[in-house]
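Bug #2210: token dump truncated for TRAP transporter small permease protein?
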Amino acid sequence: MQPTATPPAADALARVLDRLSALAIGIAAASLAGLVVVQGWQVFARYVLNDSPSWTEPVTLLLLSTAMAMGAATGVRENRHFGFFLLADALGPRGHRLVEALGGLVVAAIGAVLAGWSAALLADGWDVHLAGAPLPQSINYLPLSLGGALMAAFALDRLRRRPASAGGAR
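Reproduced locally. Full output below:
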């Protein structure tokens, strides 16, 4: 059986998703760097200036949520997430393909649920102001919603790109 060429539209989709993954990891890295700066300022202001700012805790939670959600989505794209590979390998090629497909569907479903409910919670609390920072109370759901959508898209793309005869390759 001859391998079939990947359609140009599929290649374009893969390139777009690769760029989204790179953007997500860049956002996660910037969030972690921002987290260091905000917490550094918190410590300096509290112990040197004796004037602890109220905005640092909500901003820290937002940055941490952003780093986690974007990093998790990229982990799905790069297949560097937690998994039970010993079980899949012990099942043989057919069982491995089945478990891999089922795992991809579960990740896609979890990402979709995370995106949908996070978006609903984001919209629900958008008009309520956060104590300590000039942000909406539900702002922490924004990165969770985006990360969930990316997880679902990346998991579905992994399933699409997986060859039907892919045995035990990871």
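Output looks complete on our side. Residues 8-161 form one domain. Marking as cannot-reproduce; reopen if the truncation happens again.
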